[in-house]
Each structure stands twice: as C-alpha cells, then as structure tokens.
Amino acid sequence: MKNTDTTTLTKPLRKKVDFNDYLSSFTKKYGTYGVVGAAVVGVIVPVLFSSILMGKKKGKKRGVPVKVGGEAGYTVRNARNPELVQFPWEGATTIAALFEQCCEKYSRNPCLGTRKVIKKDFVASSDERKFEKVHLGDYEWQTYGQVYKRACHFASGLVNFGHNVDTHVAIFSETRAEWQIAFQGCLRQNVTVVTVYASLGEDALIHSLNETQVSTLICESKQLKTLAAIRTRLKTVTNIIYFEDDENVNISDLFGSTSGWNVSSFNEIESRGERAPVAPCLPSKDGVAVIMYTSGSTGLSKGVMITHGNIVALAAAVMTIIQGLGRNDVYLAYLPLAHVLELAAESVMLSAGCAIGYGSPLTLTDASSKIMKGTKGDASVLKPTLMAAVPAILDRVRDGVLKKIDDMGGLAKKLFYFAYKRRLQAIEGSWFGAWGLEKWFWDVIVFEKVRSALGGRIRIMLSGGAPLSGNSQHFINICMGAPVCQGYGLTETCAGTAFTEWDDTSVGRVGPPVPSCYIKLVNWAEGGYTTSDKPMPRGEIVIGGYSVTSGYFNNPEKTAEVYKVDERGMRWFYTGDIGQFHTDGCLEIIDRKKDIVKLQHGEYISLGKVEAALLSSHFVDNLMVHADPFHSYCVALIVPSQEVLEKWAKEAGIEYKDFPELCDKAETVTEVQKSLSKVAKDVKLNKFEVPAKINLMAEAWTPESGLVTAALKIKREQLKTRFKDELQKMYH
C-alpha cells in the first residue's frame, strides 16, 4: 500500500570542481608558473584590497526591550515583529489544518523521501565484534498529495482497527517517513501522540507508556521482540502496529493467541482505512498534540504536553526568520523525531513546502560507520540545502575533516590552514574578507571539496540541543560555506525560543527571541546575577508566549513549580538557565542554576560552562566535570577521541595492546591533561575550574548505555552513579 513515486529531485546543480583535476588541467595549459601566478593573483590581490577597504558593519538591532506582565525583569522581543506571531496564515490554527492546507498547496511537490536498502552485510572488527554495513539506493519520493492520502488512510484505519480515539497512541521508532505519516494521521482524529525514543531503556519505556495509559503502540518490526518480553508489565496497551521492514519476525511465535494484543502491520492499517474511510475529528489549537518525554538528563523523564497552537506558532515564527525558505529547499532528516528539535524542524519544513529526505546518523556521510565501502552516504545522495544538528555531530564533522587534512600533509595541508585563517579573519574583522573574489578563490581551490561531504548545497545549518563551541561554529561556517544558526529552546518551549539570524557572524550567542515568544531575565540573587548588571543585564531566563507548553503530564506539582501565568493570561516558563542580553538584543547562555557548585574555599564553579570550554580540545570526544563541595578542586571523566589518541601514540612511540590500555597509561593521561590546560588558558578559565585530575574512559557514552540523551547531552546523575568509584578515587 506504498503509493510511491520513485522519481528523484532534479533541480539543476552547479557542476562540482575536483581540485586535483582542476589543478592538473590548469598546469597542463598554463604551466607551473601559471599556477603560481594564479595563486599570487588569487591571494595577494584580495589581501591588498582587503587592507584598503577594511570596514566594520553597522550594528543591527535584532531584539528590542518591551514591557510585559508577570515578574519584574528585563524583557526582549524580536525586532522585526512588534506583536507575537501566532499562526502562519488565517485558518492554520492546528497542525492538522496546516498540514492539509500545505498538502493541497504543494500537492505535486516532493514531500518525503526514503532510500531503499539494496544490500546488507556484516563486517568483523579486529576484536571480533560484528558491524552492519548497508548499500542504499537513490531517494524515492512521495509527493505532498500522496503523503496526505496516506495520512488520511492511516487515520481511518486506526479507528477501524479498534483504537479508542479518547486514548493515546505512542510512536516507538527511529526517524522515518512512516513516523511522520502516522503522526499526521493520528492528529486528524484528534488523537494525542506520545513520543518515545527508539533507544529508550525498558524501564523508561514502561514508565512512559503506563503513565500516559497508551492503548495503541506504533513501532518498528525489530522492536517487537522487546515488546513481547515486557508485555506483562504494560498495563494499558492492547494494539500493536508495526512498520514492515525486512526483519525476520514471526508474529504468532512472538505473541501467540493469548497475549490479548491485536497486532497488525502499518500497511494493513492503511489498506483498512482506504477500504472504509472514516470522517476526521479535527482538533482545536489548545488541544494537546504531543506528550513528549524529555530526554531525562537530570533524572526520570517528564512528559511535556505540547499543544497544536505551540507547534503552529513556532512554524509561523521560524518561517519569518529563514530567508527564502520554500519548495526549492531540501532538508536532511536524521535526528530522533521523538526529540523536540527534529519534530519542530520537520513541522517547519512541511509548512514551507520543502522536501524532506530521511537518513540516519550512521549513514549520514560516505565515511559513516554503517555505509558500505564504495557507496554513498545520505548527504551525498540527497544534496540537502538545510540541516539540523546537535553540537556533538558537528564536532565529529569538524574532527573528520581535520583528520583528512592532516593525513594529506604537505602543501595541501598548509594551503588549507592558510585559507581557513584568511576566512576566519574576514569573519572576525574585515567585511571585505567575505568579498566575492577572495571567497570564490578559496571556495574553488580549498573548500568545495570539503563541502561535498554534506552534498555541497548546504545554505543554512541549525545547531541545537546543547551549546556549540565557537571553534566548531566558525569551522562549519567556513568549510561548509553556510551560516550555522545556533538555536536555544527546551521541550517545555516547543524547541524554538531564540535563533541566530543568518547574517550574524558572531559566536557563543543564540540570537534574539523568535517572533512567537518573549524572553525575560529575572534576578537570581543567590548566583549574583541581576538585570542591573553592567555592561549587560543578566539573570534567569524566563520564556513567555505562544510556544510555551501546557505543563507536565500527570505532574501538577512540578508544573506549578516552573510554569506561571501572569495577570494578562500569558504563560511563562522558568528555565533554570542563566543568560545575558547583548546591546543588539541577542541572548547568550552563560550559566545554569543546577550546574553551579560551591567549592571548599568558597569559589563557585559552573560545570556546564567548563565542559563546553574543554570540549574544544581535539583529544576530547565527551566529558563530565565533577565538583565536590568538600574539596578545593574539580575532576573530570573524559571519553577521548580514539582516532586522535591513537595517532598521537603512534607519533610518540607509545606501545600498547588495546585502546583501554592506552587510556590507562600515565603518559597518555598527562598528554590529555596538557591539552585541557592549554584550552582552559585560551578561554581564560580560572585555575580552580581546570580539572586537577582526570580519568580516561575507553568506552564511548551512547544513548543505548543510558549515559547520554538522544541529543548526546550527558546524563549527569547516571554518570555519577555508574562511575562513583572512579570519581571517589580522584579525590584521594
């Protein structure tokens, strides 16, 4: 029942320039001196012009102060919108209405694309572990009209299958086209969807399904075994709908006839709906569209109730920020749809008529771990114009590029770093450095090859989920040739709160408020942050407006603690984050209330701030800084980059049996410690903020291990519990 159009996107692309071919043909035609001459013209002339025309762009107001209700503080709104934006256009007050109108408007345009699996194989590593490798084909596309029909069929089939529309549906699956189709289908029957991470552990899965009293669970076929094993602990589930993949699953063997569950494939549900259509039961803007469980970085997950109005307001706001967003854009979707960042991003894309091509973190690039040698990654095939990413993924992209450059060595390496330095100087100082001639020269000679790793057409990247280091932001901006717009938001604010505008080249900030909300700073006396601080007002970040959610499901006490309604009826959410406003109205996150620890001699240390700074060390893949109030120093658990560390060991002549042994060596620990000290000095950390002792962890922290969230943020409490002994040893 897959009504699928197998045509691919055919938007003409500029022909790619291979630097080696280009240089070879240029040399053949003009000789070696011609190449040198071109380099002189391309480098010296722009540099000379740069020194003559150097100037500074006039400051632009991006956010402006405004008076509002609620607690006293310093409040800012987006400069381009005097009033908060609530809807993208008249009549689009719910996700269901917005989706229907967009599918009618863009009916023949490509909507959702998926790559077909051509071949699978398993490769054994040196330690005899097996890793799956896949060969994927081109993207096969369904139009907006086709996707809308499938969503309608699924909505009818859900009712015909016996789902009680007054109960909840949960989607327990990785990101894919069917996830979005099922989601839109549920909303057409005013059914609230509970989102569950595909990597969630059994206890957390059981907790979220039982707490929300889910009656129908939608999942992938590979997860049926997990569900069969825990079915006696699921109190309210009666229906299972699974996406048919090429997994060898026997339903009768798994569930038998006595499980009490009705089990059906996704395609069969669609067929039922097509045979027997059911009239839609459309929602209201204040109705709860999603109960989204937070990633649980500080403990047991809480279910955030996100309304139709929240998501629609965010979509309306973001469409006013991203220039030229529309049907010519292609978005690469690979982050978890159970995370608010991806759900919000895809909602925006559908609202603007963009094409969404689905991938995964393990197949993203040609060098990704799951891609079979000689085949293409998702980005190379899709050639997206828009991407969202979490900082951990952008850091990996940066590290991968730098490793290739270092491996090349010689003139190529020197040329790359010279070009990078010139472009960085342009961004940080001279407006002329971004001028066409020099920029074009470096793009053709150096950066065009780098950009092909993500398809070569990226025009905007959004980073969210955690702070992005300034080094990584500049690196991606220069090498990928596109602005990296750093966003700030929470599940409780439907992701969108602040968003860096495309022409803002500064780093370390998250931009002005999006047009659907206000951002207010209120005094936090205990931490010493006040709105009267100079040179910038500082305080706890409080968010109000149409994107602030309804609260926590079945948790009125916690809801009352962090959500407030002012005298005008506006909802405000108290984030616990500490920020400051720059003179142009852009927000910078500088601290977090829960991350501050007072050391033995009275110094305050912000764990999150120190972690964000130390992540820029090329040795560090992930880390957790820990501080004990009974000691005068902090310590850190470090997950080192295996590639970087092994390369250093080879150059230093260090002998070792395996990676864990390398991590345990005293000289290895000393080298990483030196790197941390250098980074700390560069960013001007205080001496007590630099970890006095570190422990190198050979095994990576993954969502599956329960030590990081799906957005790869560390789970501090879980890490402290798991590595309690290691932390104690560093204090003795």
UniProtKB/TrEMBL annotation:
It comes from the Eukaryota. GO terms for cellular component: endoplasmic reticulum; membrane. The chain crosses the membrane at residues 30-53. Pathway: Lipid metabolism; fatty acid metabolism. Its cofactor is Mg(2+). GO terms for molecular function: long-chain fatty acid-CoA ligase activity. SUPFAM superfamilies: Acetyl-CoA synthetase-like. The keyword Cell cycle does not apply. Keywords: Membrane, Transmembrane, Transmembrane helix. Residues 130-553 form the AMP-dependent synthetase/ligase domain. PANTHER family: LONG CHAIN ACYL-COA SYNTHETASE 8 (PTHR43272:SF92), LONG-CHAIN-FATTY-ACID--COA LIGASE (PTHR43272). This is Long chain acyl-CoA synthetase 9.
